[in-house]
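Our collaborator T.R. sent over the components below with a one-line note: 'Predict the complex.' Nothing else. No constraints on interfaces, no templates requested, no preferences about which chain binds where. So this is a plain run: every listed entity goes in together, and whatever single assembly comes back becomes the starting point for the next discussion.
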Amino acid sequence: MSDLSHHTRYHPRWYRRRMSVWWWLKNRAYSKFVLRELTSVFVALFAILFLWQLRALAHGPDAYAQFTARLKAPLFLTIDTVAFLFVLFHTITWFNLTPTAMVVRVRGKRVPDKIVAGSNYIVWVLLSGIVAWILTRG
Amino acid sequence: MTERLTPFLWILFSLGGTIAAFLFPVHLFLGGLAFPLGWLDAPSYEALRGLVQHPVVRLYLFVVISLPLFHWAHRFRYTLYDGLQLYHLTVLIAVLCYGAALVGTAVAAYTLWNLA
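Returned assembly:
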């Protein structure tokens, strides 16, 4: 993420080669970076879907039944599958970045990256289990 | 103004990213795949209405919807900025992204308030 240097319309022109908008396809690492950045679109998509479900819930049993029926349509199942894969990619890249973003020290010694990232995965499994238990206990 | 807002927006980005990382896969897997496909029994309308009566559940739902929207706003803003090189639209993109997250937050608050 670049710092916002202010662009002005009548900026003095220095020599700059035009970059293709597809610069990120030329290199695997760049493609991975752009895919990672695009996970945010699916994060937002799911947040909106979740909100939509709550609105259906607020509108009564009929509206909610209509909503759940819609989720069974192939279009929604496809969207949800793609969104799930992107959200999973977000989770993995986010967890693996934590040791870089947050250095944990115990008695002055840096906790190894693998332990910091690994503890995220343990908490993730626990939280997922709790959510699944609450929603499926009947 | 923007200089003072940036750290705050970055905190929202990182909180929202953390919440989405921990909780979105399970909610998306259950709500979007396991329940519609019948792999698991979906909770009934009455059960869900009962669940959202609890203020802690409503607070949870508010946070789980609102903060990831700000995560999206912040990240997507820079994706457009860097990816599509829309340098002259910086202000418009920022207003649209954070504005959309604010609207989503307001709708979430209103919906959850009325669900009680």
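Summary for T.R.: The mean pLDDT of chain B is 93.
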